[in-house]
Amino acid sequence: MTPTLVASRTALPPEGAAPPKGGLSAELTPTLVASRTALPPEGAVPPEGGVSAGPHHAGPTPLLDVRGLRISFSGQEVVRGIDFCIAAGEKVALVGESGSGKTVTALSLLRLVQNAAISGQAVFQGRDLLSMPEQALRGLRGQAISMIFQEPMTALNPLFTVGEQIREVLELKQGLAPVQSEKEAIKLLADTGIPEPQRRVNAYPHQLSGGQRQRAMIAMALACQPQLLLADEPTTALDVTLRGQILDLLASFQAQNGMAVLMITHDLNLVRRFADRVIVMESGLIVEQGVTADVFARPQHSYTRRLIDSKPVRDGAEQLPPAGAPALMTAQGLRVVYPIPLPGFKGWFRHGEFVAVQGADFSLPAGQTVGVMGESGSGKSTLALAALGLLPCSGDLQVAGQAWGMSAASNRAMRREVQAVFQDPFSSLSPRLSVEEIVGEGLSVHEPGLSLLARRQRVVQALADVGMDDGASPARLAELLQRYPHEFSGGQRQRLAIARALIINPRLLVLDEPTSALDVTIQKQVLLLLQRLQRERGLSYLLITHDVDVIRAMAHHILVMKDGHVVESGAAAHVLAAPQHEYTCALLAAAS
Amino acid sequence: MFGSIRVSNSIKSVATPVSLSPGRRAWLRFKRNRLGYWSLLVFCMLVLLSLLAEVISNDRPLLVRYQGTTYFPIVKDYSEKTFGGDFDTATDYLDPFIRERLSQAGNWALFAPNPYGSKTLNYFAKEPNPSAPGRDNWLGTDDRGRDLLAQLIYGFRVSVLFALALTFTGTLLGIITGAIQGFFGGKTDLAFQRFIEIWGSMPELYLLIIFSAVFAPSLALLLILLSLFGWMGLSDYVRAEFLRNRQLDYVRAARALGVSNWQIITRHLLPNSMTPVVTFLPFRMSGAILALTSLDFLGLGVPPGTPSLGELLSQGKNNIDAWWISLATFCVLVLTLLLLTFMGDALRDALDPRKAEK
From CA A263, how far away is CA A280, in angstroms rounded? Predict the structure, then answer.
């Protein structure tokens, strides 16, 4: 985002800004608008000079005015009385961490939440969405208000082609004949930038890539030129290089149609790039709202400050690692293949090969971090599993001078040196074991002679090391031992996973996306914890991540992977400052 | 559709004051379902009562005081001569002569509430068999003159014990085979799946008929035959759970720690794969009871003389006029199956992962 753009946006009042902007862009793209105005333009332009509606709005009637919205699930209030409004043609971002109630807020506007008690008002074009009859609301859904979901794979019906799904909207909402709707669907897909739309219109969701699926989803949502688009984390499930593209696509449609967009996200980079106005939610309440640039420049609420401040940073206390440290892990020509079924008769007897990692070379010095970055499918998680000796691999991989063998007994000593922390804090702890059993598991394998009391002391010590005590007394830690994983938050679970890995004093930790499932503020805490542990214990990390910010904060050396190949490697500062390979450049550009 | 959306998890983060294991929480959820919980209590009570059937329904007195000596006919046989009879055979306490001797001054006998056993033929009945409910036989008698209430109590016991045994063996086999397939996967899984396909296509009923012609019919034979075919459905569920769980991160972490396969199966995978097993337990029991009843009805089940609900139903069919036989048996069967179904429903709700957070 360019600074000049910020200036031009902040110069205008947020409500007043929208209609002229929509009009302006309509003039700029006359052809598109002309073809679209042939369709029912119901309320495409907000009533000019409308009377003041909301108590907090002096300008024209907002497109959507939400007042006193409260949502509760079986007595638990998750949204606790929020007011906001969206002007026509305005791009609003709803920001908050998981559990702040932002998704249910959006879903409740179309009454798509089940088993929830909803109270309050959501006035859309003079009608209350929350109290209008179901049939009237059904007329609005997909027509005046439509929605894009986070995960396009599950939001599209796998049994129908994307063309059929787009046409369904057109035929249902606009009464187009099948021949027309077919043409319109192809046109919509072409507008979203899907190559070969004539062919793709007959593709099933699984035949499209993730980005294409999201584009098809957008085409479906925009088929009737809604006045309001609810986009629930539209880019979270996509790779970083795709995120920018989808966002640009949304922005260009917004400019063409003059529709308002309510985007729900936790990614502040996207907000900065996309939104005119930002609404910050924390545990069911709006803590701050305002023009995006204002909020980012002068956050008023402490929670907003914390959010903005949550970009991962390198710990100030860190010293430069000594050069020429001995390598703890070295890989030469590391190659990992998965068997895949061959088609036809041949497949009965032989398997094909899918090469997940091809010829990776790296060396991990003691006490330092090698960051592996790349998008999904680049082979970086496979690399992590091979480094852990959990996947058979060819080539030379040595940990502290030893290679993974075939027998479990000979590998046991090596397992003591290399431990892992995985991505998903919810599946990385067995739900039926207590904290003591989970964290102490390594001790029962590697130090079976330990007495019950000594083991418990070690577990308590490990919990204290990862900051589970929050500075409280050891008595409180002992109380944690008998608890079960479901009682802990994502960040705490990740700390438990780290404690489980550290209790047997390994020298190398393989971190597979250790923070990507966590909220941003928690992510920062966990990264700081990892940095402190590295400093204090001289740990080495093999860090797998797609997040450039995390790499920037943690890594000393970088490997960039694409389609199983290492396309670039080198010292972190060097690669980040002057990327050589175009793919690295794309990754870095997408993240900024 | 909304599965992937990260709807607020603030409900989860509310810390409970007392820490409960997931199993314990499931039990609390089960208890909260009144219908299921009471069904469990009533069913357990019925089973307990039927285990004490000898005290409730017996043709021998529990205790006899005869001419200053105390006898325990319930556990010991006494010859008729003991009580002043003529023969050296076991006493028939329903014989009016013996009754009279026992009710003389100073003598007394404590009978069970229903003075008939499962095999007792009342030779001294005042009506032809089957006789309608009356003072002598509360629910009437069947066509051989056996007391219907006694038949039902003992038949219920046989059914439930058989169902428990069948459920146990079937579940055990199902867990073991499912665990092996799911954990090792690949070729092992492939071979087992093909075996199951072949084994599952065997005509179970014909095998039972053939075997009942070759071997003497007995409960043990039935148990073995039904177990051989009963494990397949469950093994598929356990296999699916294992396949899903074994690639989760906590299993990977355990592997990275160097935990042995056996430990991974018993500590991590089994406890997390028990949901379908537990959910199906009551339904498997009701299935087993039904299977035994229908085989008995067809005459392929328990050996003749064993009290059995299916045999009573078949008698009811043959003696349409004796409405009390079919009606009473029908009521017992419906009550049993209904209780089990209510329990199963409650259990399924308690273990439903979507409701687990509440």
Answer: 12
